[in-house]
User: Fold this.
Amino acid sequence: MKVGFLQFQPILCDVEENINRISKLAKSAQKFDLLVIPELANSGYVFVDKKELEQTAEEVPTGYFVNKLVEIASEKDGYIVCGVCEKKGEFFFNSSVLVGPEGYVAKYRKIHLFDREKLFFEPGDGPFTLYNVRGSKVGLLICWDWIFPEATRSLAIQGMDILAHSTNLVLSYCQTAMITRSIENQIFTITSNRIGIETNGEISLHFKGHSQVTTPDSERIAQASTDIYEIQIVEIDLKKARDKFLSERNHIFKDRRPEMYNLLTEKKEF
Ligand code: ACM
Assistant:
């Protein structure tokens, strides 16, 4: 199976320019089965006013940007996961969509919001769901969801092969942590990060690139630069994600002791 990421710089509130940038890069790519594109790829990230979201967010799946993604998926005969600034009535969600040659498949609304996202977006409420992409089981998470291993685990225990992770990373820990997510769940992960410095009024953020694909045996089989537009597609062997034994007697899921983990599902005050 051929999977990979597209790394680029979206322009704040310029949906037309953003889909043009994505389209140009994606069309230049070799054949892929699954391509992951960064978080909030239609809108950019550094909002200071809800009016900016009003201008750029769209209803999913009927909006302009998602329809254009479907056109690209159809032309390339591959599946695409891409971050979308979603509008639903008066609310906004930091979402990602899965589209394929046959059209729109599904969306995921980011559950764990990062920093100022809490000023603009509602958190998603799942459920964690897997989707079939050419015989693989694919789960979707968005950026800051990475720091909650419970999120990846909730997908992995359902049989996830590949985590499609759309990001706008500003801290530098995630790429290392995703190797651990890969090992502890014996899955492939595809993290697609954006690049560039985005400034809006007083706020300026630097997005660090380094998009990557990680494997169950802890390898990074693709890794992008910090600041260049890139598309990388690599071949993966799904069999690697289906063998959950790490030794003759250690199956990473059968060895779990959920009866010891009840504190994890209790609501606690902090
Ligand atoms: C992030 O969740 N965009 C850091």
Notes: The domain at 2-265 is CATH 3.60.110.10 (Nitrilase/N-carbamoyl-D-aminoacid amidohydrolase). The two ends are 44 Å apart (CA to CA). DSSP finds seven helices and 16 strands in the chain. The pocket of acetamide is lined by residues 39, 114, 143-144, 168-170 (CB under 6 Å).
